[in-house]
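user: Please review this fold.
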Amino acid sequence: MIAFTLACALILVISINLANSDYVWLRVEHISGNGRCRYLTRVHLAKLGGWSMYLHWFTGDDWSLDKHDHPRPFWSIGLWGRYVENTERTLDGGHIVEQYEVFTAPWVRSFPPYHTHRLLLLPFDHDAPKRPCLTLVIVGPVVREWGWWVQKNLWPLLDNEVRDVRMGTMGRVMAWVQSERYYSNDQVADARKSCP
């Protein structure tokens, strides 16, 4: 399954990149929350119009303890490893609870841009370090801004800066913060980072 998926992706990547000579493919990008916690290596494979394809090599948990959403719809194909996805779920009666679900490769998953989550890696046994995870990701065109959901009382926002507010788990009021604004507030972002 993994070899077949990678072979198909390679053929697609070569075809797209031959047609799109301006795109720098196989560019490597290290994702770290503006240098706070390196957790993901992204390899740019292809771009055509507003669509892109990447390899994601997760080496740690998402850098922030807060959940995030995405600017585009995307599809994730699990090639190797596993991760835990932390989301929230609304129960009957409106009570919101944390939800944790383990995904082990191979998988094919799709996400709308407003899907809010946080990813965590798992060790293969309780005493071992966390194991990496490899995914192939296909993303659609940008349809919105990237953002983070934070506890409103932890974030020094003026009323006109709050884009969206919702209830979170345990009755917490959550505010959506645009990604660049989240990264630039060192006091809050450093306090919410997931690494030492």
Summary: The chain has a mean pLDDT of 80. DSSP finds three helices and 13 strands in the chain. The radius of gyration is 18 Å.
